[in-house]
Amino acid sequence: MSVSTNRRALLLRNPKSRRGREPIEPVLQRLEQGGIDITIETFEALPEIARDIVRLRDRADLVIVCGGDGSVSSAALAAMESGLPLGIIPMGTANDLARTLDLPMDLVGAAGVIARGHLRPVDVGTVNGHAFFNVASIGLSSELAQGLDPALKKRFGRLGYALAAMKVLTRASRFSARITEKGSATEVDTYQIAIGNGRHYGGGNVVEQNAEIDDGHLDLYSLELKNVWKLALMLRSFRSGTHGAWQEVRTAKCIEFDIETKKPMPINADGEIVTATPAHFKVHPKAISIFAPSVAPGAAAHRWQVYHR
Fold first, then answer.
1. 151 located within any domain
2. Is residue 1, in this structure, part of any structural domain at all?
3. Which domain holds residue 198?
4. CA–CA dist 94, 203 (Å, integer)
5. Which residues touch 179 (CB under 8 Å, ≥6 apart)?
6. How does pLDDT run across 134-184, given as a tens digit for each residue?
7. Which DSSP category does 73 fall into?
8. Domains held by the chain: number
9. Helix (H) or strand (E) holding 78
10. Partners of 249 in the beta sheet?
11. What is the pLDDT of residue 232?
12. Which of 135, 138, 192, 245 has most Cβ atoms within 10 angstroms of its Cβ?
């Protein structure tokens, strides 16, 4: 009697994600060709992801999330605790973590990356104990996340974000906050404070031009503009991560930040409202391994591992 040496994967699928209703069979076929046995679980709410990983961790050698950035971030802490590597099938709208890791947006191509077994250890950010891979923010982005109609997001994708952003900007106002790093506090009036762990966010914007998801620190920026509509002039710099060159943009790098506001303000982490101020942000260096292409732009060879059961 032969014993299977296939890897066992727990595949978590979010049917509510933008591409969540696309046929899953080609993905499953590619994974099975790579010697991976699949157990499929479908979830309707993000908290179910962590519960499924905890419940089924002993039956799996890896976890695969089929969804967007919010779905993947919801799996992070449970995957970290279990020690299981994480695979991503990018079915969301922005898919910024997939972009950071140079994953194919083609679903079968992303499955092929998992089947080939190359792992990249990456940092995880947390805010008040909630994980994020890309960015967590207070202000404009949180208002956008709260006001974005899920049906609009699913139908129009990134255009839906743009339409909702215009609505948010028409009623935007500055807020006062205290930013603390390394024991030093700074008082600011700002439209937004964003703290990035990875490289890409917001559908392809860059947190900071030199940011990487395994550099061991967080990148902060604060939009201290007099007029929010000046953002229109700054759009190109946000796409390249050079917005810190503008006088009205405060930037900082650190492993921990504390943010306080006069009244509690919601915090958007990877597209989902997860907590509120006061907030403690922290980076967890190379806390989880994610299946990624074996060669990435600018990545040193020693960053990569090959996963064997």
1. yes
2. no
3. 130-285
4. 4
5. 185, 186, 188, 193, 220, 222, 250, 252, 257, 258, 259
6. 999 999 866 665 555 455 454 545 544 454 455 555 666 789 999 999 999
7. H
8. 2
9. helix 69-82
10. 223
11. 76
12. 135
